[in-house]
Amino acid sequence: MSIAACMAFSGVIASPAAASPLQCVPYAREQSGISIHGNARTWWGKAEGKFQRGQEPEVGAVMAFAPTRAMPLGHVAVVRDILDERHVRIGHANWSSPGRIEENVLAEDVSEDGDWSEVRVWYGPSHALGARHNPLYGFIYNASPAENDDVATEIAASTESGRDDIG
After folding, report:
1. Which of 48, 74, 86, 107 has the most CB atoms in a 10 Å sphere around its CB?
2. pTM of the shown model
3. Where is the signal peptide (predicted)?
4. Torsion sign (Cα): 16, 20, 26, 31
5. Residue in 55, 56, 74 with CA at minimum distance from that of residue 66
């Protein structure tokens, strides 16, 4: 599907707020299974040592936005689909209007180096990507750092023993 089609598709998918609307933090926690509490701006720091973090989007990961003047509490969203190296679809709450939950909306990496340090996000009222460039801390993955170490150890052991049944 082309990016233009995804942009049009994004506007159609955005859903109105539920009976008891969620803010971005409880929405991201519920949708990702990543149990972090506090304002969105604190998620990146609180994830350190508890969850894997990185700069590449993965389906199910939480996209952690850094606070700005326009978003002093930061923002969090959940990656739903990876379209290409610079476009993903996300689910999030409280972006286009207060309490509104939006699913499968487009987010575009607009960083100079293509490192997902800055994004533009679909903005419902304009039916297009928003003009604002939003800084990201990165992505929080639903796995602990220890789980990553265990997998790396198991892969290394299988390589040394000639086994190739890990995967």
Report:
1. 107
2. 0.78
3. 1-19
4. negative
5. 74
Among the listed residues 22, 125, 126, 147, the one whose alpha carbon sits nearest the alpha carbon of residue 77: 22
> What would the DSSP string read from start to end of 76-144?
EEEEEEEEETTEEEEEEESSSSTT-EEEEEEEEE--TTSSSSEEEEEEGGGTEE-S--EEEEEEEESS-
Give the model's pLDDT for residue 131.
95
Output the pLDDT for position 155.
44
- Domain 3-161 fold is endopeptidase fold (from Nostoc punctiforme) (3.90.1720)
Residues of the chain with pLDDT under 50: 4-18, 151-153, 155-159, 161, 163-167
Q: What are the domain boundaries of the chain?
A: 3-161
CB within 8 Å of 99: residues ≥ 6 apart: 17, 21, 22, 23, 93
Q: What pLDDT sits at residue 164?
A: 42
